[in-house]
Amino acid sequence: MSQLILNAIGDIEANTELVEAPDLTVGVGEALVRIEAAAINPVDFMLAAGTYGYQAQVPFALGSEGVGRVVESGDPELQGRRVLIVPNYQQGTWADEVVVKAENLVVIPDEGDALQLAMVGINPLTAHLLLTEFVDLKPGDWIGQNLGNSSVGQYVIGLAKHLGLKTVSAVRREEAAAKLRALGADVVVVDGEDLAGRIKQRLDGAELKLALDGTGDATIGALAQAVEFGGTVVSYSSVTGQPPVVGLGDSIYRQLTLRGLWIVNWLSTASKAELDKTYTELAAMVASGVLSLEVGATYSLADYRKAWDHAREAGRDGKILFRP
Ligand SMILES: NC(=O)c1ccc[n+]([C@@H]2O[C@H](COP(=O)([O-])OP(=O)(O)OC[C@H]3O[C@@H](n4cnc5c(N)ncnc54)[C@H](OP(=O)(O)O)[C@@H]3O)[C@@H](O)[C@H]2O)c1
Prior knowledge:
binds NADP nicotinamide-adenine-dinucleotide phosphate, 2 domains, single chain, 324 residues, 7-stranded mixed beta sheet, Rossmann fold, Quinone Oxidoreductase, Chain A, domain 1
């Protein structure tokens, strides 16, 4: 049995060890989960570096999301069941086996690819909340986003299609645009000259009800120009480190509202019933193929350095996961 443990905040490479015999004592209200697959998410690197909104306390068990099977539990409802581990940083999924509080487990169907299900915890939930928590969207409505080819962006496109919404997605590379078009995205634009003008032209008179910002650069300002009077812009990430900038005319004359989403806030306030319902629905959509994401590669825990290098490659194709 092995588990990746972070011993100090800062340099994940220097501060991580593969612990070969972690303590797997199962207490009351806990379960032992054998991990089937655990995704590598950008948040894992931010947590280790100390640049995230949640401060990890070391020694810290790495790995936010994953799925597995309960191999030991006092609860007959859990024993032997396939479960999703709630990504609230109270346990680490980059392990062969891990002890998890029962309240952090959601029972999911036996059907479905473990790799696809291992990615449900963070990004599909983010896409779901972005599309449901801010604006009452109806079939036929348009929404816009940047970071369109990110995992979050692709789940936004998939969920929007499922809900009958139409999407305008901005990306920074032509290859990324081609990939999204091949996946059936409605409108895809590549960042560059007169982005706002090109977005408006492609919308052909329609307006966006909602614009989503993951980039934190001028692309959100361009998308905001196409948002309807009094509409909403939601910031959920800034890969550039810049704050979202919405033009003065859009925020004052057209009264757009800028809001934020962090799933950690939702996870810490949602009831267990709400968690179960939301993740069960998302897992069902993934198991049936309504939502899916390309897998770039899988690695064993022992190859964790190779896995991390691959996960951090710019322009990488597909998600990187551990398959212990
Ligand atoms: N608020 C929340 O609760 C929440 C939840 C989930 C995720 N997030 C955040 O959402 C972001 C996306 O996560 P993910 O898992 O979807 O990421 P991902 O699949 O790894 O995709 C990363 C994306 O970032 C783009 N990118 C990287 N550097 C960039 C730059 N300097 N300028 C423009 N684009 C850049 C990449 O474009 P290329 O393909 O061209 O390289 C790619 O589209 C992350 O910042 C993550 O922390 C936030």
